[in-house]
Amino acid sequence: MKSHNIILGLALAATALVAACGxxxxxxxxxxxxxxxxxxxxxxxxxxxxxxxxxxIDAYLQRRGWKxxxxxxxxxYLLDKKGNGGNxxxxxxxxxxxxxxALDGTPIYRHxxxxxxxxxxxxxxxxxxxxxxxxYGSTAWLIAPSNTAYGVVGDGDRVASRTPxxxxxxxxxxx
Length: 175
Fold this sequence. Notes:
The protein is of the alpha+beta class. It has three helices and six strands; from the N terminus they run ααββββαββ.
C-alpha cells in the first residue's frame, strides 16, 4: 500500500510539473548536448596534439636514421647494446640510470637514477613498457610521446606540458 501511495504521489507531482510548465517542459538533454560537444572538442584537440607529436617524432627518427621497435603503449625504442643479464620481468625491482632530453636535443635531466618495480608504471608508461623488453645490462634509446611520458601536466619540474621525450637508458641493474 505504501509503494502504491508513493507511485501515485510521484505521478501527481509529474502532472503538476507539466501543467505548471505548459509546453516548456525542462529537459536535461541540452546540458548533455553541451557536455557531449565539449567532450568531442577535447577528443579532437588531443588527436591534433598526438598527430603533431607523431610528426615531430618521425622527423627526429629520420634525422637519426633510426628504425625503432614499437611498444604497445605507442612509444618506440632502439636497442643500443644488449645486456648479458637475464630478462627484466614484471614485479622485478630495477635500478635504471638514464639521461632525458627533448626531441631537439635539449637536456632535461643529465643523470637520473630511479628504483622502480617493473609493471607498476611508477615513472612513466613508456619507461615501464620498454624495461619489459630489455635484459639487465642493456642500453637503449626510448622515444616517448607525451601521453606515454609525463602527459598534459609535465613532471612539475623540468619536463614541460605535452613534451615528447627521449630517454637514453644507460644502465639497468636488478636490485
